[in-house]
Amino acid sequence: MQVRLGDVRDWPFIYSLSKSVIPVSISPWRRQQMEETISYRDKILKSFWTWIQQSESKVFITETEDTDEKIIPVGYLVLFPSSREELTGITQGWIMDVAVLPEYRGQGAGKMLIQAAEKYCRDRKILYLGLAVSSHNQNALKLYQQLGFAEERKLMVKVLD
Q1: Contact 80/93 with Cβ under 8 angstroms?
Q2: CATH of 2-146, one of 3.40.50.450, 1.10.760.10, 3.40.1190.20, 3.40.630.30
Q3: Is this structure's pTM higher than 0.70?
Q4: pLDDT range class, residue 95, cuts 50, 70, 90
Q5: d(CA 161, CA 26)
Q6: pLDDT of residue 159
């Protein structure tokens, strides 16, 4: 596997994969029909590439060779390198989105994407890299903790009847 910078030609892959991981990302606290959630996310995703370009965010693509030796994408990461931490105003890299095809999870694709984002930030003297993850997504939490991410805050929710 290898990581490269993505471009607009990767958008169909990113769009498709980002829609497919919605069920994994949603908190079990959120009670809504999946169709409504997907419809809402689809509206956001339709303008996501424009935002990526306007914000000068970077896209990283993990790819591998299939059995026919064809190079195929297996995961992506969107990095917003000029995010400002909300309490201090310190510039940080922020991982906006990361996803790996289910059949390639646990094979190092996600780790490679995170490491590419870290290198990008280090090369530009960005001292912090942040992300948000649903607390129920144990596989993602385990990966991020193994890569040195630490819990900084807790986002809490209460279901009101």
Answers
A1: yes
A2: 3.40.630.30
A3: yes
A4: very high
A5: 20
A6: 79
